[in-house]
Amino acid sequence: MNAELTFLYDKLSNQSKTYIGYPNTQILDFENLSPFLNLTINNVGDPFVGNNGMNTFKQEKEVVEFLGEILKLKKEDLWGYVTNGGTEGNLFGLYLAREQFPNGVLFFSKESHYSLQKIARILGLKSCIVPTQPNGEIDYSELDSAIRNLKHYPVIINANIGTTMKGAIDDIRKIQIVLKKNKVARSYIHCDGALLGAMLPLMDIGPKVDFSFDIDSISISGHKFFGSPIPSGVVLTRKKSIQHIENPVEYINSSDTTLSGSRDGFSVLVLWQVIKTLGLKGLKDRAADCLNMTNYTLKALRKIHWPSWCNPGSNIVVIKKPEDAIIKKWHLAAESNIAHVILMPGIRSYQIELFIHDLVDSQTSKPKEVFFLKEETHGDSIPHYL
């Protein structure tokens, strides 16, 4: 058994050196928390109520309150909990929407996370998939048309705060203009902010998304920008929304307000430690470093004339899809004729230089080709840095 574990650790350690295609922070240092792995910590129930068992509710509330502060949700109006990932957060946010509007229609773009169609089925929600613009952002004219045809139903919208492949950010103001234009009286806006939901409030550039825009809930991943060896996340909503689902449970001395019963109390400590260690300034520096590395990568790719671009405020660089060997070696996510590199905390310039070297090698002795990331997109019509 020990030999197998050693082999597995070495294999995964080597893979992490070229892991630039998925949004996982590579700065992980949580050995000081290892004693807690020998304790049964169960955050069952509502972190703002407590329970009769061993929990990390104090730290969980501090994590939620920190995110509430940077996302401009007043403390007296704030509720949330630590999830096991972005999909649970999306399911929870849309569950709240369904409980308020059982006959609502869920609108989401075709470049939304793959879990959205599954969530619609689980919740039994009618759904409408809306086309996107070339940069991955929802097409607001198409959304307008779709809502116009279905506006006799309550409108539930999943807004993407960083699409999976292109890092596109749906504009909440434009969505609200569409709702107002169609005189929609009953609506709920959930934001899938898995990657960029926590980064945007920390950056000086890019669009802003927070509760001052009258959103109803947001889901953020914990293992992405913050960093965790265990997938986790945080979902935030307004306290009044919980009234639709709150259910007191006597034997745990808490309220059943989360999706899962038993919940991981260790991941709470991981997120709490990151926030306490780095603080607001340290997290802002981390976000700035991601953007600096994003610009570095774009410059390096353009130097070798490899087609590439990036949405404003995003650390996802979209590139022409390379050959399969490079996709496999560098763990790139690929779709159709594109792939992407995600400049997460911990990725350094030497890794990008090695990646560029592999791209250059792959072009040697190959004929030149004319390539567009999208047939309808040319030149500067796709936004990017630089």
Write structural notes for this entry.
The protein is of the alpha/beta class and 386 residues long. It has two domains: 2-24 and 289-381, Aspartate Aminotransferase, domain 1; 31-278, Type I PLP-dependent aspartate aminotransferase-like (Major domain) (Aspartate Aminotransferase, domain 2), CATH 3.40.640.10. The chain is built from ten helices and 13 strands. The protein has helices at 2-16, 57-70, 86-100, 115-123, 140-150, 172-181, 223-227, 266-303, 324-329, 349-363, and strands at residues 78-83, 105-109, 126-130, 155-160, 187-192, 217-221, 233-238, 248-249, 254-255, 308-309, 316-320, 333-335, 338-342. It has a seven-stranded mixed β-sheet, sandwiched between helices. It has a four-stranded antiparallel β-sheet with strand order 10-11-13-12, covered by helices on one side. Helix 3 (86-100) runs parallel beside helix 4. The longest helix is centred in the last third of the chain and has 38 residues, at 266-303.
Which structural traits does this protein have?
single chain, 386 residues, alpha/beta, Aspartate Aminotransferase, domain 1, Aspartate Aminotransferase, domain 2, 2 domains, 7-stranded mixed β-sheet, 4-stranded antiparallel β-sheet, 10 helices, 36% helix, disordered C terminus
The SSE order reads HHEHEHEHEHEEHEEEHEEHEEH
Instruction: Give the strand content.
Output: 15-25%
Largest sheet: spatial strand order: 1-7-6-5-4-2-3
Can you tell me the CATH superfamily of the largest domain? Type I PLP-dependent aspartate aminotransferase-like (Major domain)
State the distance separating the first and last CA atoms: 51 Å
Number of helices: 10
In percent, how helical is the residue content?
Answer: 25-40%
Structure class: alpha/beta
**Do you know the CATH topology of the largest domain?**
Aspartate Aminotransferase, domain 2
Please identify the top-level CATH class of the largest domain. Answer: Alpha Beta
